Amino acid sequence: MQVVPQGDWKRTHNCGELREGNVGAKVCLMGWVNRYRDHGGVIFIDLRDRYGLTQIVFDPSDYPDIFDIGDSLRNEYVIAIKGNVRNRPEGMANPKLPTGMIEVLVGEVKVLNVCKSLPIAVNEEGDEDERVRLRYRFLDLRRERMQKNLIFRSKMNKVVRDYFSGKDFLEIETPVLTKSTPEGARDFLVPSRLSKGSFYALPQSPQLFKQILMACCYDKYFQVVKAYRDEDLRADRQPEHTQIDLEMSFPDEEDIFSLIEELMKKMFKEGLDIDIEPPFRRMTYEEAMLKYGCDKPDLRYDLEVTDVTEVVRGSDFKVFEKVIASGGRIRGIRVPGGAAMTRKKIDDLITYSQKLGSTGLAWMKVNEEGLQSNIVKFFNKEKQQGFIREFGAQPGDLLTFVAGRAADICPILAAVRLEIARRMEMKPLEEFAFAWVTDFPLFEWDPTEKRWAPMHHIFSMPRDRDMKHLVDPDSDDYDPAKVYGRLYDLVLNGVELGSGSIRIHNTGLQQKVFDVIGIDEETAQERFGFLLEAFQYGAPPHGGIALGLDRLLAIMCGESSIREVIPFPKTSTGTCLMTGAPSTVDKAALREVGVKVNIPQEKQVDET
RNA sequence: GGAGUUGUGGUGUAGGGGUUAACACGCCGGCCUGUCAAGCCGGAGAUCGCGAGUUCAAAUCUCGUCAACUCCGCCA
């Protein structure tokens, strides 16, 4: 096949553009052969670019000299054609295509490039193993699904930038080569050639820089920015992900909430033409844990956890009494219509809960006469009435119970709750269920390390009313467990979309927080002295949030993995199947940065 | 670090001790002047992820290993 230069040919239209109004026009199109239909006498080709498909026709009765070229075209060849737009014959229009009323009769053709036989089809959505798609990502990205997702992503980026710019926010870039930031994750390290033995870290977020920008008077900052964390991957976690990062001076929580709610409203309206209705639901961390068992509840499903410890207390059911005696709780979920579940289905649910670590899952069916199950006999009439009252049970419901320490049963109840929604094929209350979860504890006790650990990041402002539990370690009120922060998470459909807080802007208070988690002044100076120093020169009160753009886009695109909205993602072992990254480097390159590889021989990657 | 699922022509699947390793799509060739998932005929293409073991015999059974995915740990 003869490949020829493009020469002075210019596209007059793209492949999604021509309509009946263009009939009679002489046009030049360029694109990929999406599919060819050779009828021996006449050849149809769907020419594709990212704007659409246009049917072009090779007809030997009109242009016999180029027919052989048309005959030799194959999928994904890149061609340029010149020809006349004409109406399709009566009854031959294709209503599935926007360009389906017309076709272009090819008068001249240039083959700009050929294509090898394809490992995966571009012109249809394959269901191949993801490793094949990632290996041939350059083909996968040509497909409609990925095009749609990436174009959507670009559009949303513009909405975000327009939105913040329109509100006087400044997009200010922060370094990628920086100092280790104090998030909890492992840093990616980059060796320094000029300072051998020293390393940059890739930022886990621009956290410290954006706080310093507040101290610098840039009172409204935002950035669409990559963040890097060297931790294990998941469907919703990549080693590099993109955040919509922002920070404001002099805000309170409501300022942040309404700012983000309006952004979400705009993105959903412009991206999906869906109206979402702020304000979003708000609940405290404690409420979320109690009612849903987790801090990122999926509120699409109308299922709540009910604590029935006080109803149970004093019953004849030894299993529950034992748990209560040791300080545990009895909590359960009412399953509307669940009484119709077969014994087998209930057993499956029990097995599921046990796999999660529960000791069991008790249950009772609710019918017109009352409660029915093998354990009802342990509860007197009054307690049975108590269950019906507390759960708000209706005949036809199933009541489930899990017993244990609150910290142990919360995650089980959270998972069982979602499993019930799935198995009962519950109809979502709404397609997109947003919520703000607020007032997280600032610290949690780490039993293995025997010390207080920060539950979120360490620059979050404690609530005013909790200061007394923090400021004076010698006072009777001192108790880090009772200190809650001005923290907030944005949750959508059970996914943590973002996290933020009102920050500490006062070095004295900041050191009090460091004291709790065992960071002395010297360590604090060494790790983020620059921030503390900046705060001594007139730092304003400030706060902000960072949203996970990949997660948001995945939900909006209806994808179950963020890899579907990232052009070149990594596999679960952090490798890129297309480029082969990460890879070994020359010894000379290592020497130059003063790094020596020291790993067990058998683990060394073969360089061939 | 742990658990689970998966791995068979280019792609997706079937086959579960002895088969000529089957089917669909794709690919190549031929026929065909109105298709649009075109149609019809023919053909090529697989040492069944890799390595050991059991067996007269392994794609098939066992063990190990690698890879992908999902989850736990981890990631505020």
What report would you give on this structure?
By secondary structure, the chain is of the alpha+beta class. Among the domains are: about 20-115, OB fold (Dihydrolipoamide Acetyltransferase, E2P) (Beta Barrel); about 300-425, 2-Layer Sandwich (Gyrase A, domain 2), CATH 3.30.1360.30; about 440-485 and about 505-540, no CATH class. The protein contains 16 helices and 22 strands. The strands form five sheets. It has an eight-stranded mixed β-sheet, sandwiched between helices. A five-stranded mixed β-barrel has the order 1-2-3-5-4. Helix 5 (about 205-215) crosses helix 14 (about 520-535). It binds one RNA strand of 76 nucleotides through strand 1, strand 2, strand 3 and helix 2.
Give the SSE map:
Elements: E1 26-38, E2 43-49, E3 52-58, H1 67-72, E4 78-87, E5 102-113, H2 130-135, H3 137-140, H4 144-166, E6 170-171, E7 189-191, E8 199-201, H5 207-215, E9 220-228, E10 240-249, H6 253-272, E11 281-284, H7 285-292, E12 305-307, H8 309-312, H9 318-325, E13 329-335, H10 343-355, E14 362-367, E15 370-372, H11 381-391, E16 398-404, H12 406-423, E17 434-438, E18 443-446, E19 451-454, E20 487-492, E21 495-502, H13 507-516, H14 521-535, E22 542-548, H15 549-556, H16 587-592
The protein binds one RNA strand of 76 nucleotides through β1, β2, β3 and α2.
